[in-house]
Task: inverse folding
């Protein structure tokens, strides 16, 4: 067994699901012989043929709508969108159909589909290639939103997403696609779709994040450890439905919480977690909840991108501020 | 300059407005029983529509979209499809739904604001009514793609209005149907109006059938007030889709004799004269004229049919009105296959609201 | 001067703006001789002609993209979308273009447009006609999100939205279109686009909302007053940019906050306000922040709709719970 | 059945691949200066593209989309447009942009990740590069609608790729152009590939020009490697749009000789042989052949031109590389006309981040 990158782990999970279940098909722009622009589907067309790995016309609204039709026929399409910034035309189908087909037919038809897209910044990509739109999907009823942060979690969560009987939006932090390698046994073991991962223990402050921010958070935790501050770290890989319990438990012990993400701040995903703490978690809080996020501006082009993306220093600084409260 | 491609759009029609024939009829038109089936379905649809409008006017149904004047389109579709085909309708195809086995009570329930109306006991794989205009086209493409991948001899039929042809998602679905040669028939119910927007403000295309040219397959027109013609072109299109994987677009030329929905007042934007003029070409009287001319239909037959239809529709309306409500928790119990743990608190809150309101919902 | 409904007030504001500025044009499906399905544009085509009141083809993605092109040419399109549930195809253009045209050209081109749509539930409408999608817009950088709750505020905010040099999403609570009448002088006075309205004084608990929920909140405040609980009420008519100061000030005094909206709960708009309180407002809180919201389900069809929409009783109950904390 | 509509698509070409002529040439082709202008622009564009690729390969530019082999399309467009017209490009039209006065330095800056590259000093109303495929079509319709409402004799030109023709928003914009008779010319740069997806997998339509039929106006093909032909059909289309309010779709047949972008490796999905075959028809050599055959171009002219272009491009590259960065706060200062009070805190935070990083951004 060799260590895999995240993109390889995702590919392994898709391949395994395709082996297991003939109803699993992969669709998207350039997913065939090109193997996808990030090579997530590399080798799949050679292995499973053009009828199961389907290059589509350049039509994102279609991609989502096709998936609804395929899903209603009990197929399990795994649909690749090329970049985060090109997922928006799919929103109409996702919110108006995918997320409610089961409900509106009282279970007669359903939508066992996976919507995959690379997402987030940090790779000096062109305009519209560095978006963090997770809030849009996490706010939609009837849809799960999943964001892995390591190769292993990507493998297990992708398998779970494909096997899940309902629609899953699966956002893949492109900055992590090849950033690290990890042993990923291709054992067919799925991970639960509604549990946060406790990544690091520490009861001075709880750092919460997902996707590419998680690596920044872990760096921050190291910085803080050097200063004698023990930070616990939670990976909210399954944003929706949100595993509130794990977060509340941790903050009950630490009394302090920093949430980090790349998405714009206002009405962004950290707000939900902060709201949870302002509600059920209120009396555990020793200090204000800090959100370390992107700003309420379009993600800048590469030259200014580093000033936009939350980094370890910003996260650590927020944690230090919280340590001032007891 | 060199000509590199050329295209044509044709139109099919058999019956004149007075019930006489313009062309040689297709074989099935020699079968009285089949024509009576079509006639009966159109009358039942019209009876149903009238009842639904009446229920809405008296506060016992929600907003409703009548298919008055367009029964030949929807009945022609329903009559030509096989049970194993899949209908992907918009919101005005009750005629086709009824022929395929959706019950009148279910249709009432849907428009009465009850999700159970889309849990058809009959055609289990048909799509429910689609309100966001044109969004169903991609579903039909997905269904047809599934048929193709599984090598099933089934066809998806996607119905939409003239207004829907302006939607980009419809075009995207057509383009996919063309390039993948999907077993998929698109039917455009061109009733000349999209609420207040006339066909002429919707597109400069001379025909809506030619929209298919952009997608690389053929489109044709049919007289949408001539149920024989609609059934005939549908049958041909279904066969070509099923056997030769040729998608097709059929533009049925008809007219919306009613308001857009019960929430609309068409006199605001169109002339009553236009409407009364178009009554002359309506499809039910036209087929009756044909049947009567062949001596296949009598005054007695007509009276009996009207009475039967009224009885059937009234019975369905009563069953609908007598339905018991769903518990409040029904709104959350079908969102996911299994209720996620994170939603249990919300479910309890909804149950409490239901209890507060005294048990089940309306 | 006669009292106007909200829909009449909006019409007056549009007419006035059209009088004032020849670059203002109205576009949308059925906005011409039909006057819009809710009659918001009634009479405008007769008054301003078909070149300024334009019936469009049935193409929502187009509507938003057209507005971007018109805006770049310094026109001021006011675009009507027929219902909340049909706005989703416009999201791509709003987030990828309208909200960033000024930024990406460093001010060379801009987008002075208004996107109008009736929104929310409570009128027993058909499927997809009762959505509360404000979070989507409020989360987009570069876009203002405005929701009026009275005829007068609708008038002043609509004028401000049209005159504003940047894109505004203006959601109109359809349930309030004709619910009440109010004197609305057609005086051309705009209201600020970044200030909450303090609607009712009361320092026991602060009730926060917008749109149709505001009427429910005021009912709740009456119920509470009957019980000796003095509730202050804030109308967050301008969701984005959010006037945090007014909310924080009020909660600083009351120590208790209930936020109500029809949108689904998770990652919904109340979360932003709760997050604000969990951050800057933390030490004023005597009690957990309560969110009284729609559920994480598609808005039910009319038969179950009443169980979905927050009502005065739910809001009052939340406030009462908070009064248990001191 | 009755034929109710028919359509045809024509193709225009003048120059053969060897520089000889197939047809009588348009008038402007008798003007050496104009042809040399076109030639020069194509060579400059190609030189620019090569430099941009080189800068990217050495880490001094971001991802870049070369127009290698497609210079005749983009130069033909730029040459035919008037300054007051508005270009609404996709991301491969640097040739047209350069002719319209966007500076090479600005184009470098854009691809170098600096928003100031879209703040053209030159054509102030042209749209910036558009990355989300096809989304620019509706902008062009909006611009053309503004021209129409203000009765300005200006035309919007919207350029897109073959892949973009599958997008629904493109169709919606075309449909609007048709029904409102907008002064709008759509140009499809059919370079046969959309990243790895060949034209044949994009649509079953025999031509992309016929996409216009769905929208009710005319489409035509042109040899996109023949700059004389492109300029000629563009000129005609612009005149018809300007004077007769007739929108038009021009499909330019060319080939993407480069990778899709610098982030792509086309050998993964297409045969090198196909590419070398298509080099034979490339546009620059073709026009040179024509000029040389007329004795309008010498070896010395060519050497001088190449040197001039290299110098111009190098100078622009150096100016680009020497540019000072923007302050971090530039990311927030242009979002709204005036910074909303609610964003002042964020601006301060960004300023602090900028200071932390030692002043201005890269
Ligand atoms: C995407 C979308 N936009 C707007 C509406 C509101 N609406 C409902 S029906 C309709 C007109 C539809 O016209 P057409 O397609 O001709 O069908 P018809 O109603 O005539 O059968 C409109 C605009 C909608 N349901 N969906
Ligand atoms: C909406 C959207 N989807 C996907 C992409 C990613 N992408 C960039 S270019 C491209 C192919 C475009 O092909 P074509 O329209 O033929 O233009 P070309 O690149 O050949 O000039 C794709 C899929 C995008 N930019 N926008
Ligand atoms: Mg219609
Ligand atoms: Mg191409």
Result:
């Amino acid at each position: 067994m060799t260590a895999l990158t995240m993109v390889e782990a995702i590919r392994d999970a898709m391949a395994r699901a395709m082996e297991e279940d003939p109803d699993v098909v992969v669709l998207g722009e350039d997913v065939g012989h090109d193997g996808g622009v990030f090579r997530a589907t590399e080798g799949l067309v050679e292995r499973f043929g053009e009828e199961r790995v389907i290059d589509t016309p350049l039509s994102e609204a279609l991609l989502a709508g096709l998936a609804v039709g395929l899903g209603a026929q009990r197929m399990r399409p795994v649909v690749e969108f090329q970049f985060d910034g090109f997922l928006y035309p799919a929103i109409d189908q996702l919110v108006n159909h995918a997320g409610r087909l089961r409900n509106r037919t009282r279970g007669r038809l359903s939508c066992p589909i996976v919507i995959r897209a690379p997402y987030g910044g940090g790779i000096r990509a062109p305009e519209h290639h560095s978006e963090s739109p997770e809030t849009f999907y996490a706010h939609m009823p009837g849809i799960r939103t999943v964001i892995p942060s390591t190769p292993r979690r990507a493998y297990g969560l992708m398998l779970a997403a494909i096997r899940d009987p309902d629609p899953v939006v699966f956002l893949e932090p492109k900055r992590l696609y090849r950033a690290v390698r990890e042993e990923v046994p291709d054992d067919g073991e799925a991970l639960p779709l509604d549990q946060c991962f406790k990544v690091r223990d520490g009861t001075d402050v709880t750092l919460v994040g997902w996707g590419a921010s998680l690596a920044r958070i872990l760096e921050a935790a190291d910085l803080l450890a050097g200063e004698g501050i023990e930070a616990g770290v939670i990976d909210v890989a399954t944003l929706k439905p949100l595993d509130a319990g794990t977060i509340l438990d941790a903050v009950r012990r630490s009394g302090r919480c920093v949430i980090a993400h790349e998405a714009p701040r206002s009405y962004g995903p950290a707000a939900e977690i902060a709201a949870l703490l302002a509600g059920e978690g209120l009396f555990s809080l020793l200090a204000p909840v800090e959100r370390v996020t992107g700003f309420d501006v379009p993600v800048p082009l590469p030259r200014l991108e580093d000033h936009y993306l939350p980094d370890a220093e910003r996260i650590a600084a927020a944690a230090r501020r919280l340590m001032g409260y007891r | 300059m060199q000509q590199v491609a050329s295209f044509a759009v044709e139109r099919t029609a058999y019956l004149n407005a007075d019930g006489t024939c313009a062309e040689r009829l297709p074989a099935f038109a020699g079968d009285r029983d089949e024509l009576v089936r079509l006639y009966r379905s159109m009358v039942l649809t019209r009876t149903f529509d009238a009842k639904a409008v009446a229920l809405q006017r008296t506060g016992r149904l929600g907003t409703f979209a009548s298919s008055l004047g367009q029964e030949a389109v929807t009945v022609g579709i329903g009559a030509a499809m096989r049970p194993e085909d899949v209908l992907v309708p918009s919101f005005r195809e009750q005629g086709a739904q009824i022929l395929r086995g959706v019950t009148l009570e279910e249709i009432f329930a849907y428009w009465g604001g009850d999700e159970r109306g889309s849990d058809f006991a009959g055609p289990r794989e048909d799509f429910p009514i689609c309100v966001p205009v044109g969004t169903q086209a991609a579903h039909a493409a997905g269904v047809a793609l599934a048929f193709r991948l599984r090598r099933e001899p089934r066809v998806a039929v996607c119905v939409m209005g003239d207004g829907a042809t302006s939607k980009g998602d419809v075009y995207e679905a057509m383009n996919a149907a063309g390039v993948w040669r999907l077993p998929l028939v698109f039917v455009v119910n061109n009733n000349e109006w999209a609420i207040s927007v006339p066909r002429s403000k919707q597109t400069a295309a001379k025909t809506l059938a030619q929209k298919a040219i952009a997608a690389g397959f053929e489109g044709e027109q049919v007289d949408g007030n001539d149920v024989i013609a609609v059934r005939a072109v549908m049958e041909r299109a279904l066969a070509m889709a099923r056997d030769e994987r040729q998608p097709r677009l059929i533009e049925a030329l008809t007219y919306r004799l009613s308001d857009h929905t019960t929430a609309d007042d068409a006199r605001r934007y169109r002339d009553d004269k236009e409407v009364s003029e178009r009554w002359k070409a309506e499809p039910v009287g036209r087929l009756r004229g044909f049947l009567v001319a062949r001596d296949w239909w009598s005054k007695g037959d007509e009276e009996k049919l009207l009475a039967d239809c009224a009885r059937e529709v009234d019975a369905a309306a009563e069953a609908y009105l007598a339905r018991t409500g769903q518990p409040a928790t029904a709104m959350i119990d079908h969102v996911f296959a299994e209720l996620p743990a994170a939603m249990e608190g919300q479910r309890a809150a909804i149950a409490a609201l239901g209890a507060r309101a005294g048990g089940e919902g309306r």
In short: The radius of gyration of chain C is 19 Å. The mean pLDDT of chain C is 98. Residues 2-184 of chain C form a domain with the Rossmann fold fold (CATH 3.40.50.970). The longest helix of chain C spans residues 6-20.
